[in-house]
Design a protein that fits this description.
Distance between the termini of chain B: 49 Å
Structural class of chain B: mainly alpha
Oligomer: heterodimer
Helix content of chain A: 25-40%
Number of strands of chain A: 10
Distance between the termini of chain A: 34 Å
Low-confidence stretches of chain A: none
Helix content of chain B: over 70%
Number of helices of chain B: 11
Structural class of chain A: alpha/beta
Order of helices and strands of chain B: HHHHHHHHHHH
Radius of gyration of chain B: 20 Å
Mean pLDDT of chain A: 93
Radius of gyration of chain A: 18 Å
Order of helices and strands of chain A: EHEHEHEEHEHHEHEHEEHH
Chain lengths: ~230, ~220
């Protein structure tokens, strides 16, 4: 079989799962995976500007849909590969209670969310704060990360005391590093339906088509769910 | 540990510096020899990348090289694919970004020669081309070395522009500075430490080399 390579733009929250999937895919098909990670909005802007990606694994469904409408993505190729969840997390085991009441009482240190304009998980964090009527109140202490990966890094390195990350990022941590966290009710933010879409540049590429199909196979889905995502 | 960003960065810096030297020699020569408002205007344009925020440079490059940009369109019509987010795009970006670092040392070296050696050579019937290659180039060797070293080092250290026009594609646009940024974001501090320490050592050596070059230069003048 002729082995090719596929260039994939991957939303930052999916980094861990993607690395595991690549290993599996490369072993199974012989195709090589060349993945670039970033916030969904950043990658979307790159694709609009002609970046040579063949497949896009976004953290939302809005941007894949826009690409499909703009004729940059292959019509009918959108699939939801994972459903994400949001978590308010702190390294401090005593900071966050299981009901998230701390947000109402007030966290006096800085908290961090991903940039709502470019990162779907940042938008979800903003929605939670808005729906709780706390968005204005937290403005002076709200730090913004460029992607959900940077938000995670800011908290994990102890530079910011708490912030909104993806549940999948927390799932990767050993129990003694999980600190304290709260999972907001799903009524508080729009569902994080993470969609993959085949881009026109990958329409005729065997490796791109193969990865797109691979995402929906049972072995791939079991990896995805192991990384803390729901498959619906 | 993945070393491909190191090789990619060295390749990018070598190609951009090589092309920049070719482009900068006539430009620096003209700047060193001419006067008037046009010279000042060109000087300012050449110096701009030194003071412009990399994001401004990156933004304009993206607009120019994107699928609807003038450069991007021509490039795509020529059948080369997309210019933004490609290695060729990075070469173009790096050349603009490092232009003043190559032009200025050359310009200073050319200006320091003065008119006299060339006039003497002219009286000996040396043609302009002959004068340039037999007098200007040998007398400007320290200038060339400074220009090449600075252009190379500055391209290696490039971050903001690459972040905007690169797209972090492994083996194509994921250069050292981007790799370090991503390692830090992923909490891979061991890899970040290795690459950063390498960059620190590299920069130290470059500056040390410059010191030695300038010392040699001083001796020559004596």
């Amino acid at each position: 079989m002729w082995a090719g390579s596929v260039r994939i733009a991957v939303a930052a929250n999916f980094t861990g799962a993607m690395k595991a999937l690549s290993v599996l895919f490369e072993k199974e098909t012989g195709h090589a995976v060349i993945a670039s990670y970033g916030s969904t909005g950043t990658l979307y802007a790159q694709i609009i500007n002609g970046a040579p990606y063949e497949l896009f694994l976004a953290a939302d469904s809005i941007r894949p849909e826009k690409l499909e409408k703009a004729g940059i993505a292959v019509r009918g190729s959108r699939v939801t590969y994972a459903w994400g969840e949001l978590v308010l997390w702190s390294l401090d085991p005593n900071l966050i209670d299981a009901e998230g009441k701390i947000l109402l009482t007030g966290i006096n240190q800085r908290i961090v969310i991903a940039n709502p304009k470019t990162a779907p998980y940042g938008l979800a964090g903003r929605q939670v704060l808005e729906n709780m009527g706390l968005w204005e109140r937290y403005q002076p202490r709200l730090v913004r990360g460029q992607s959900i990966a940077q938000v995670f890094q800011m908290i994990a390195s102890g530079n910011v005391s708490a912030g909104f990350i993806a549940a999948s990022q927390l799932a990767l941590l050993p129990v003694d590093k999980k600190g304290s966290y709260w999972q907001p009710s799903k009524q508080l933010y729009s569902p994080l339906s993470q969609q993959a879409v085949l881009l026109k540049k990958g329409e005729a590429q065997a490796a791109a088509i193969a990865f797109h199909a691979f995402l929906q196979t049972a072995p791939a889905q079991s990896v995805i769910s192991n990384y803390g995502y729901h498959l619906k | 540990m993945d070393y491909s960003p190191v090789w990619l960065t060295l390749k990018l810096a070598t190609v951009s510096t090589g092309l920049l030297l070719l482009l900068s020699v006539p430009l620096a020569w003209w700047l060193a020899r001419s006067g008037g408002w046009l010279k000042h205007l060109v000087s300012v344009v050449v110096t701009l990348p030194l003071v412009l925020p990399p994001t401004v440079l990156g933004f304009y490059l993206l607009v120019a090289m994107g699928v609807n940009g003038p450069l991007g369109k021509v490039y795509e019509q020529m059948g080369f694919g997309s210019l933004a987010f490609s290695f060729s795009g990075l070469i173009l970006g790096s050349m603009i970004y490092s232009l003043p670092f190559v032009v200025q040392p050359l310009q200073n070296a050319f200006a320091a020669i003065g008119r006299r050696p060339l006039e003497v050579a002219a009286t000996l019937c040396a043609s302009p081309i002959d004068r340039f290659f037999s007098i200007v180039i040998p007398l400007s060797v320290p200038g060339f070395l400074t220009a090449a070293t600075l252009g190379f080092a500055h391209t290696v250290g490039e971050f903001g522009v690459v972040l905007m026009i690169g797209g972090s594609i492994p083996g194509e646009t994921k250069v050292l500075s981007i790799a370090i940024y991503e390692h830090v974001e992923s909490l891979e501090y061991v890899q970040a430490h290795w690459l950063s320490a390498g960059m620190l050592l590299f920069s130290f050596c470059v500056l040390l080399l410059m010191q030695l070059l300038n010392r040699g230069n001083g001796k020559n003048l004596l």
